[in-house]
Fold this protein.
Amino acid sequence: MNTTIKKLEEHKSSVPSRWRQRAEYRTANRTWLRYSQHIAMRMLDKMEEEGLTQKGLAERMGCSQQYVSKILKGQENLSIETLCKIEEALHLEILPQTVELV
């Protein structure tokens, strides 16, 4: 048993784990994270339907592929501007239209 503990200690990371902070963050932000994940799933479905890659979507939205990747992970706090870009790029309604757009 002591040998196992010594081996584990030898391989222990020098950087403390941030598991607890991430778990607390997810708990505190559960509502918008679920909504963000729901949007990501709808985007993925539409992208699959259109045969669209992350790079292709990024080009349509005028942003980087890396940013699209973050959005599709469902952990990005999306601005209204970004939501509108997603809607336009994928011809997908995310926000209900409450005002008449000219």
Observations:
- The two ends are 72 Å apart (CA to CA).
- The helical segments are 2-10, 19-28, 30-50, 54-61, 65-72, 80-90.
- The first helix runs from residue 2 to 10.
- The CA atoms of residues 4 and 10 lie 10 Å apart.
